[in-house]
Amino acid sequence: MNFKAPWLFLRFVGGALFVLGLVLMVFNLYKTLRSPVILVAKEA
Q: What is the distance between the alpha carbons of residues 21 and 27, in angstroms, rounded to a whole number?
C-alpha cells in the first residue's frame, strides 16, 4: 500500500495538471478567436 500510494498521487497530480493545461489552452484559443470578431463587430 505504501509503495502504490505515491504512484496514485503522482498519476492524480499529472492528470489534474494535464486537464488544467488543456482547459487553459482551449480558453486562450477561444479568447484569440473571439477578439477579432468583437473588433470587426465594433468596426461595422
A: 10
Q: In this predicted model, what pLDDT tens digit does every residue of 5-31 receive, in sequence order?
A: 888 899 999 999 999 999 999 999 998
Q: Which three cell numbers stand for residue 17?
A: 495538471
State the pTM of this model: 0.57
- What is the domain partition of the chain in residue ranges? 16-44
Q: What is the 3-state secondary structure (H, E, C) of the chain?
A: CCCHHHHHHHHHHHHHHHHHHHHHHHHHHHHHHHHHHHHHHHHC
If you ran DSSP here, which 8-state letter would residue 30 be given? H
